[in-house]
Specification:
Length: about 375
């Protein structure tokens, strides 16, 4: 099995945190093992290595050395994991080693590489793809904020300049893609995922989904016929102000969990959703803010492919006789194809009662009415 190396970079407040969260969750659902390499600059800054306390070149050298070490560790582990488990692996780097070039003179960066016996072109082409998310300060100014990253302090004008320098630093990579702010934020992240799927040779999912209430299936029978990837999910809604929806989610399998914080703001086409991966301790802290008027949503999600269709099947503990499946389609008129082992009771695509936020309010309604 192969290991794919992808850099996710961009200017300040570009959507990397939400993008990394989506990448990890969607690829995990499709059977990939995803490794996410944290941003080295932020780690160093929060650890006390800060500008202007440390000269720029020394600061970038510290990032360079740590990045080199981290990349070797992640690549070695991913190669071992891929062979041991016969599983395709994806390493996603929250900024790559050439990002430092945006903050140094070209001659100085070249000299730094040579001091380690490395060539800039070799470092650049050591990644399979580089995806640059443009800063919100360029085309989505009203959403520009630094509140989600204490290590950043750029004004919108500075953010635009940094954005341009980062793109220039990566110029020459055979698979450099730039994702701008020509759509709303959700559309921007969707375009990011389209690029990720294209890089991996996966069919690009569409926005067309159909949801069905089904009779509780025989899981053992399904497992014996199809390759099912199971993910256990716990979703907790938090106390929120008007116009804001906040939630935290735990997802994974026993002993191996990831944690996410999601925030939705606004209404209609102005609604924006941001998401970031958080630590277990942060997750536990957020649980203290749980909205006690809403139930916690727990479910086991089984993902598999049938007749070229990607199927997600959610099984909830409060329904013993029912489950829900979602199917991705490429065309509105496309006929839905489900395994013969699945008995469909009715379509609930437009039924808001079956949304997680609604189920958190009431899951005791007559599902067949």
């Amino acid at each position: 099995m192969c290991v794919t190396n992808i850099v996710l970079t961009g200017g300040p407040c570009a959507g990397k945190s939400t993008g990394l969260s989506r990448i990890e969750q969607e690829l995990t659902d499709k059977g990939y093992k995803v490794f996410v390499v944290p941003e080295t600059a932020t780690e160093n800054i929060t650890g006390g290595i800060r500008l202007p306390e440390v000269p720029v070149n020394d600061f970038q050298k510290a990032i360079f050395e740590v990045q080199l070490a981290k990349e070797k560790v992640y690549r070695d582990v991913a190669n071992v994991y891929s062979k041991l488990h016969n599983t395709p692996c994806v390493i996603v780097y929250d900024r790559g080693i050439l990002d430092a070039k945006a903050f140094m003179k070209c001659s100085e960066y070249k000299a730094m590489c040579e001091s380690y016996g490395l060539k800039e072109s070799e470092l650049r082409d050591n990644y399979d793809a580089v995806i640059h998310l443009k800063t919100a300060a360029d085309g989505a100014e009203s959403f520009y904020t630094l509140a989600n990253n204490a290590a950043r302090s750029e004004t919108p004008a500075q953010a635009r300049e940094v954005d341009k320098k980062i793109i220039k630093a990566w110029n020459g990579h055979p698979h450099l893609r730039v994702i701008d702010n020509s759509t709303n934020f959700d559309g921007k992240i969707d375009r990011l995922m389209d690029e990720i799927f294209s890089i991996l040779g996966e069919p690009i999912p569409t926005e067309i989904e159909r949801k069905y209430l089904i009779k509780m299936p025989n899981l053992e029978e399904l497992k014996s016929i199809y390759t099912l990837n199971k993910v256990s999910i716990i979703q907790t809604y938090l106390e929120s102000s008007e116009g804001v929806e906040r939630r935290v989610r735990q997802r994974g399998i026993v002993g191996t969990y990831s944690y996410y914080y999601t925030e939705k703001r606004g209404e209609g086409i102005e609604r924006i959703e941001t998401e970031k991966k958080i630590t277990k301790d942060e997750y536990l802290d957020y649980l203290m803010e749980a909205d006690t008027s809403l139930k916690q949503i727990r479910k086991d999600r089984y993902c598999f492919v049938y007749d070229n269709s990607y199927i997600e099947m959610d099984i909830y503990p409060f329904w013993k006789s029912y489950a829900v499946v979602e199917v991705e389609l490429t065309d509105k008129e496309e006929k839905v194809s489900l395994p013969p082992e699945i008995v469909v009771l009715k379509e609930v695509t437009e039924d808001k009662r079956f949304k997680n936020s609604s189920l958190a309010k009431n899951n005791k309604f007559d599902v067949l009415e």
